[in-house]
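Q: I'm writing up a methods section and want to include an example of the input and output format. Could you take the sequence below and give the corresponding predicted structure tokens, formatted cleanly so I can copy it straight into the document?
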Amino acid sequence: MATTTRYATPARSRPLHAVTAGDVLGWALVGVLAVLIGLPLVLVLLQSVFPGVGLSATWGFQPELLGEIFDRPLWQRSLVNSLELAFGSMLLGGGLGFVLAVLRHSVAFPGARLLDLSAWTLLVTPSFILAQGWVLFGSPSGIAANTFGMAWVGDVVFSPVGLIVIMSLIQYPLAYLAVSAALHWDDPVYRQAAALSGARGWTVLRTIRMPLLLPAAASGAVLVFVDVIGDFGLPAALSASYSFPTLPYSIYASVRQSPVSFELGGVLSFYLVVILAVAVFFYLRLLRRNKYDFLTAQATLAPRPRAKQPWLWAAVSLATVLFTIGLPLGASLQVSVSKSLSGGLTGTNLTLEHYAAILASGSAMLEGAANSLVIALVVALMTTALGFLIAFVLTFTRFRARALLDATGVVALAVPGIVLAVGYIFVWNQPVLAQWGVALYGKPALLVLAGVATALPVAVRLQMGALAQVPAAFLHSAALSGAGLAVRLRTILLPIVAPAVLSALIAVFASGVFDLAATTMLAPPSFATLPVEILLEYERGDYGYATAGAMLTAVVVIVIASIGTVVGRHLIRRSYEQRASVPPSEVSP
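A: Here is the clean output for your methods example:
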């Protein structure tokens, strides 16, 4: 959201036709977002009525394709499966996140922080890694059957209800964090009035607290719906074990098959985007129907009295961690150190040969990990820089197209990565681009652009909060002293918000290493990437090698992120100390 105070020259002294540096920067960013997000999305949607446009000499206008989803079994099954999975996960995952958040912030008990740890761990762990863990646990020859003797687990996991439960356990943190943020503050007036009227704890929760938490609960549920319906990780993990076509996976298959099915990718992408737009529309309408601004000047940090049965709630926290993190990641870890999936957890079946094979010279997994780490680093640097500039324009300038700039970021946040990846194929595979020498399809550079487009909304949101806390007068004073825009950004704004910039950099880097949708769709055949190698080995049935690659790279990413965070904070602290030691008279504008 743009702030009301700006650093720009007051309107009375600035001509209406004057173009400021902020305007130039704003329009440049609009152009960048149009190339990164707008054009790919438009072109992939055009394929739904103009199949092959720009890529085939025989393309034409075929609006009847939109109605064929009700006649073609695969298209219809993909739509129904996606809706069932998303709605079921929205209800179950949204409800689970709501209940756990209310529990976490209502009473104090040992192990309460485990709920936070579980939520954040799930949030940063790629869904296809978690999904693979669940598949390895529940498959007929998996961990549940061979280690624990529970063969019936496979029938539960590989069913529509089982998949809804799995996705709910993976995505519930979105609802948990949304409700937790709303529970941070509390106004005791309402509870006190209810208590004076004779209402007990459950009645207060049901009739007062839960209705007031409706916006947060709806927000969390919609976020779960949006993330699940666009998820590519689960169907990719299931592809080798269970037939459950979804919209994202069918879109992927439409481009990977030969010949390419332009109409399939376009029509399914169209319906996927429409479903997401409808979900966001109803969510916004829900928020605007009633007023929920209930906090007053008496609001305080929400108190958390000690629980009457702390052991019970501690057991709930521990069970949450075990089921959501311990089970899928534990299954992957066990498989990575096992000679065979069916051998169980026995001494004769344990081995480190998969890790040794990965670290051996010429390993495709090691090459893919190195390439993915480099691409993730480049994406993180570019995305953080662009996010910083966009957040600056949205917060401190009078740029006329701020709403367009912000809306583009929201679209990129909602549209699944698989749709953008397909759009990148349609855009950068245009024959005319080859004549101009800018045909990027089949080159690693396209992975960088797709990674930036996917991660940019997150980088903007992570930095906007910090920028909103900076008084515009700081930048205005520097402008009056003759400092240009670049100088103001580099010497004033960037040092103040450096911690937020570092957080965005680390977050984008960590998530970019395991970007499955973009790398699967756009990676050149001769260019190994980690997600593609893991998926290929997984589909071949070499589960130990695939999970070892995921586990080893995850450790490397955590180590790099931790070192980067420590070094970054040290450099920021050192910069602050150096600036504080400089006499004011020596500070140049």
